[in-house]
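Appendix C reproduces, verbatim, an entry submitted by the partner laboratory led by Prof. M.T., so that reviewers can inspect both the input and the predicted structure.
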Amino acid sequence: MSIEFQDGSGRKVSIDKFFDNIRDKEVELAKTHLEQRARDAACALIDPETGKHAVVFVRPNGETQLVMSTKGSPVFARELERRLGVEKGVIRSMMDGPEAKTPIVYLAHGSPDHKTLARPFAERLMQNGMEVWLEAWEIGSGDSVRQKMDQGLGDCTHFIVLLTPTSIGRPWVETEIDVGFCERLRAIPSSSGCGLALA
């Protein structure tokens, strides 16, 4: 008797690949759960220094870690840490110290380019000290896509569109470009930037 292992598409795979796939799916589920928990906790908090809800960024850092930061005050960051049961200093406040000028990049792209171009580019920007608003990281099930997009554009300091053969002409990318440019022209100081990246 022999045992055959298959991946999600029904293709035969080795036993190592089979268990690697299971591990990867479980890690992704755990990261998604932690991201949602952090965002839920943040939604229940008002920043005592501003009297408003603060934006919280939860980003992947490698295959098994998450990095959290907030546009809220250091007091907000400490309270969020307390509610999540994590060590002090794990959540970085962008209002404190040198991080206060951390650029926040809104990254518009076509869905087919997410894994191959947008996510690697976003991770590279983050490795260089920037925050990135990426649709897959910010929009959850049940969220209003347009409301989240408007919020992301309102919070960002830079607006980048990844133009590729698969993104040009996509209605949602065109909407992001239209709204993004209008928002940049209306609300962002001249020291901030926007740009197009051709691939």
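The first strand starts at residue 5 and ends at 6. Additional entries are available on request from the coordinating office.
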